[in-house]
Amino acid sequence: MPYDDSPPPTRRARPLSVAAALAAVCLTAAGCGGGQEPGEAGAASPRPDGDAATSTAPTGNQPEPTASASPSAKPLPKGPLTGRTVVIDPGHNPGNRDHTREINRQVDIGTGRKECDTTGTATNDGYAEARFTLDVSHRLRALLEAEGARVRLTHDADRPFGPCIDERARIGNEAKADAVVSVHADGSSVGNRGFHVILPAGVKGGGADTSKIVKSSADLGARIAGHFARTTGSAPSNYIGGNTGLNTRDDLGGLNLSTVPKVFVECGNMRDPKDAALLTSASWRQKAAQGLADGITSYLKG
User: Fold this and answer.
1) Which of 84, 110, 118, 171 could staple 206 via S-S, CB 3.0–4.6 A?
2) Opening angle at CA 260, ends 72 and 46, nearest 5
């Protein structure tokens, strides 16, 4: 089936001054439920690597390479985020599937070694996670730039594969980003539904030291979770995070190597038909981008 990756006209993100308590309220199942069936909570994530999980699902047609991942050269409007820098990290790369040798190369994540990257997952009918993450990232960039933020993508399908997970972290660090958000979708079992935000654990070893970003990243993640639930109507994950929508991990190079506030967002489960129907909808992806933008704005204005 065809998928519309072209964003609708951008609406300006709503001004926000939301306290962290609002995010906590929105995270309750009663406050932000999306009609999902409850399931076993707090189970280990089925993804072998939250930086980049390999899937056996088909990847579908890939998008053509788009504009450079460098910051936009166009003048930005003055807004509440003027002077702030946000790095958006679209999970995976459409070209990864054609460069398995390169992405299987091990890289240092501070506390060990992991694959450079992986292909990502896909819906059962072939809508690739790499397409999803780029589309949501483009929408998110437009919303944040409308608020005056300087936005950079770690890639924009403008390179054959990658970048590797250590380089993704380095891009955010070198930009001295005020916030970094890595956009993903999960590849779990049917019946596992909802979103979750992955936070960095306290890690110190090798080149990794998250001690200065654990608290700020947790604040960023909680605000994103609350706004994402409210804007999209999706409930927090029913299979990981204890129904909080938050999950802390110490095994992800993209978080371990970050020196600036950073979180991963798993927007839904591509392998569940109900979640897949949302993820393949252009209108829902716009809501997802808006929820992310509102959460980031709340954090940066807080």
Assistant:
1) 110
2) 95
Count other C-beta atoms under 10 Å from residue 63's C-beta: 15
Picking from 127, 117, 125, 106, the residue whose alpha carbon sits closest to that of residue 160 is: 117
Residue 94 near residue 128 (C-beta atoms within 8 A): yes
Decide if 279 contacts 123 (C-beta within 8 A): yes
Query: How far is 163 from 173, CA to CA, in rounded Å?
Result: 15
Closest C-alpha to 288, from 263, 267, 259, 266:
267
Asked if 137 contacts 5 with a C-beta cutoff of 8 angstroms, the reply is: no
pLDDT of 6-63, one tens digit each? 544 444 434 333 334 334 434 433 344 333 322 222 333 334 343 534 333 333 333 3
Report d(CA 290, CA 4) in Å as an integer: 17
For residue 282, the tally of other CB atoms under 10 A from its CB is: 14
| Separation in Å, CA 141 to CA 54, 57, 157, 288 | 26, 28, 15, 12
